[in-house]
Design a protein that fits this description.
Length: 562
């Protein structure tokens, strides 16, 4: 089946179709607010002379709505919202994403509305069910192409995953489409923009059709949507690319020459460096998580180390110095260097800075436990007590001031459990949770290229938790130059001990690291959410059992270790 509608318009001399791309930061569940943005933005696009305005995937409810989709209240709100868009937008065609309810079925759909009439409705055909996506839990797949003619150009309506598979675009081309318009909710990860463009290029070259690709913007829990919308001609050349991590209403001109739709070349935003794109994603993720939850600001435990230093810089860039509060909580093991560097960074960034020593609290806890611990030598227990003293104080400040507590743990530490449950893991949000230690150093150096924000000594010093005398991270962990590549090969590539060792790593070290990852799943399940910037972060796309008899070091009889 194919839906083909022609939008009747007054005669015009131009053969150019003007499309406005509404790269908006929407709010999951705020149906009324999202709908008002659609109505206001459509009016703005009309004033700019647009014939069609495109909005992101599941515009009205936000993406991803998850189990909100099952709620009858959302169903009623979406129906009312679609009616508002139908009755309150005029003089412009509006392509808007929404969850379509039909009896017991739900579809991920896009409606094409003009002057009070729903002229076409398209149901997403390809439903992603991998990584952070689980759309088959919610939606039924559509079965039909949908082609709409506007100003003489036949446009195929597509939604996100439809462009990642060849079938929908090819079917639309076979039915006479001249242009592919794709609305998306495609989350950020490192290098993902290049992959999006490679996929769009493949579809363009297969069909000979231009692609107009609109992506969502904004932070939603663990996910960040980076925008970076673009237009590609039928040969696979990028004709326009718009800035990532910024809202905007971007104009695209499509000329009709004979039977061919040809995008006009215009501004081409450059692809940012790895460090720049990750940093911008983290800033946007922090800003939206704090802002959409309505917190007046954040509090951070500032230790003098690079992790908390980077987290503080991110928070200031996301929220402004006036909404950020830093607290140094020295113990008997805190170095003078840490005290100086924490104070220096707080002064540099202009945040409120408090010093609350934990020695008295730490000593009181040890005294209370003296009888229970009698005859047992000091070990990591006493180290963890210090971390939990700090967690207690920070959570108290968070409760009293209503500021969200940001944790400062990185992916390397969280992977192997080099963190304290109810201590430094306590908090509401973990901005650098998906950043390896080596990436943390790269981001810290990058931030200083913009303006001085992190003391150089913080970046150059050997890392230490400072929970015992002369402690270094390397006492407990392999060097990060070894640890981080092993973790990436296991977490993101699912390689076995032997497969990782075959890449030049010591097998015993690999087995030890993977054992630590397995043992600490219970900690990760209790950690706060954090921003996903890799292909596989701890959270939505990491689902390992806590209770498991699996051994990464096991040798399979008659075969390689897995």
């Amino acid at each position: 089946m194919v839906t083909l509608n022609r939008i009747s318009e007054p005669p015009v001399s131009s053969t150019t179709l003007r499309i406005a791309l509404a790269q908006l930061n929407l709010f999951v569940g705020d149906v009324a607010g999202n709908t008002q943005r659609v109505i206001d933005t459509a009016a703005e696009a009309r004033a700019l002379g647009a014939d069609l305005v495109m909005f992101p995937e599941l515009t009205l409810c936000g993406y991803p709505p998850e189990d909100l989709l099952f709620h009858n209240g959302l169903r009623r709100q979406v129906a009312a919202a679609l009616e508002r868009v139908r009755t309150e937008t005029r003089g412009i065609a509006v392509m808007v994403g929404y969850p379509e309810y039909q009896a017991e079925d739900i579809y991920n759909s896009a409606a094409l509305i003009r002057d009070g009439e729903v002229l076409a409705n398209y149901r997403k055909q390809e439903l992603p069910n991998y990584s952070v996506f689980d759309e088959k839990r919610y939606f039924q797949p559509g079965q039909a192409s949908c082609i709409v003619e506007i100003k003489g150009i036949r446009i195929a309506l597509l939604i996100c995953e439809d462009i990642w598979r060849p079938g929908p675009a090819r079917a639309a081309r076979a039915l006479g489409a001249q242009l592919l318009c794709v609305i998306n909710g495609s989350p950020y990860s490192l290098h993902y923009q290049q992959r999006r463009e490679e996929v769009a290029r493949a579809r363009a070259r297969e069909t000979g059709l231009p692609v107009v690709y609109l992506n969502l913007l904004g932070g939603q829990d663990e996910l960040v949507f980076d925008g970076a919308s673009f237009v590609m001609d039928g040969t696979g050349q990028v004709a326009q690319r718009f800035k990532a991590f910024e809202e905007g209403l971007f104009m695209v001109n499509i000329d009709l020459t004979g039977e061919r739709a040809l995008p006009q070349a215009a501004a081409l935003a450059p692809l940012p460096s790895e460090e720049a794109s990750v940093y911008d994603a983290l800033v946007l993720g922090v800003r939206d998580y704090v802002g959409k939850h309505g917190f007046p600001g954040v509090v951070i435990g500032l230790s003098g180390g690079v992790d908390s230093a980077l987290t503080l810089a991110l928070a200031v860039d996301a929220l402004g110095a006036e909404r950020v509060r830093a607290v140094m909580m020295p113990s008997r093991y805190t170095s003078q260097m840490s005290l100086e560097d924490a104070q220096g960074q707080a002064d540099l960034l202009g945040v409120r800075y408090d010093v609350i020593p934990i020695e008295t609290l730490f000593a009181t806890v040890l005294e209370a436990l003296e009888g229970v611990f009698a005859g047992r030598p000091p070990d990591t227990t006493e180290e963890n007590v210090q971390a939990r003293c700090r967690g207690l104080l920070l959570m108290a400040i968070s409760n009293k001031t209503r500021r969200m507590l940001l944790t400062t743990g990185n992916k390397s530490e969280i992977s192997v459990g080099y963190s304290t449950l109810y201590g430094d893991m306590a908090g509401g949000f973990a901005p650098i949770k998906d950043c390896s230690k080596l990436l943390v150093y790269r981001l810290a150096k990058y931030r200083n290229t913009i303006a001085a924000a992190i003391p150089v000594r913080v970046i150059e010093r050997e890392p230490s938790a400072e929970l015992r005398a002369n402690q270094k991270d390397s006492d407990s962990l392999p060097p990060y130059e070894i640890l981080d590549p092993i973790l990436e090969l296991f977490i993101e590539d699912d390689l076995s001990v032997d497969e990782i060792a075959a890449k030049g790593f010591d097998r015993a070290t690999v087995g030890r690291v993977l054992d630590m990852v397995k043992r600490n799943e219970y900690k990760r399940r209790q950690a706060p959410p954090g921003i996903r910037i890799s292909d596989r972060a701890f959270g939505r796309d990491w689902r390992y059992p806590i209770t498991s008899g699996y051994s990464p070091r096991a040798i399979v009889p008659g075969g390689p270790a897995r």
